Automatic annotation (TrEMBL):
Its main location: Golgi. This is Trafficking protein particle complex subunit 6b. SUPFAM superfamilies: Ligand-binding domain in the NO signalling and Golgi transport. It is found in: Golgi apparatus, cis-Golgi network. Pfam families: TRAPP. The gene is LOC101862764. Belongs to the TRAPP small subunits family. BET3 subfamily. Coiled coil: none annotated. The lineage of its organism: Eukaryota, Metazoa, Spiralia, Lophotrochozoa, Mollusca. It comes from Aplysia californica (California sea hare).
Length: 156
């Protein structure tokens, strides 16, 4: 339980530090920096988590692993809902996302949500990248603390 609180505090402080260290008009740069940090963390974590796993047979299997095992290891719970259109778009829904729970008391924090979701988006993209899946990951918050991560697979 202590490690969960430490992870949350580290994330909050990381977001605050990146936000403080940039100019006021560089909001996009803050989000890019946090996403890049998350990308590297996601790459490293997935290496550790898949060390003793066999190869995934398809994209859907990879996403199921991400929603169950990866998410459970990082956030101590599984993704609440996984949807796909079977054409390369996956939506992962977390109804009580850990990083948004503390600030979910009202709508006044909705504009801050993207900066708190940039790191997790990067983690997802980094993990999938290391598994050979090139994608774009975006996050959307319609009601706090629930959020949806949309993964769009880039086919070449």
């Amino acid at each position: 339980m202590a490690d969960e609180a430490l992870f949350e505090f580290l994330h909050m402080e990381m977001v605050a530090h990146v936000h403080r260290s940039s100019a006021k008009d560089e909001k996009d740069q803050c989000i890019s920096t946090l996403e890049a940090l998350g990308f590297r963390v996601g790459q490293s974590l997935i290496e550790r988590f898949t060390r003793e796993c066999s190869r995934f047979k398809d994209e859907l299997d990879t996403m199921k692993f991400l929603c169950k095992d990866f998410w459970s290891s990082v956030y101590k719970k599984q993704i609440d809902n996984l949807r796909t259109n079977h054409q390369g778009v996956y939506v992962l829904q977390d109804n009580k996302f850990k990083f948004l729970v503390q600030m979910s008391t009202g709508k006044q924090y909705m504009e801050c949500a993207p900066q708190y979701l940039a790191f997790p988006c990067g983690m997802i993209r980094g993990a999938l990248s290391n598994l050979g899946v090139n994608c774009i990951v975006t996050a959307e918050v319609s009601a706090m603390p629930a959020c949806k991560f949309q993964i769009q697979i880039q086919r070449t």
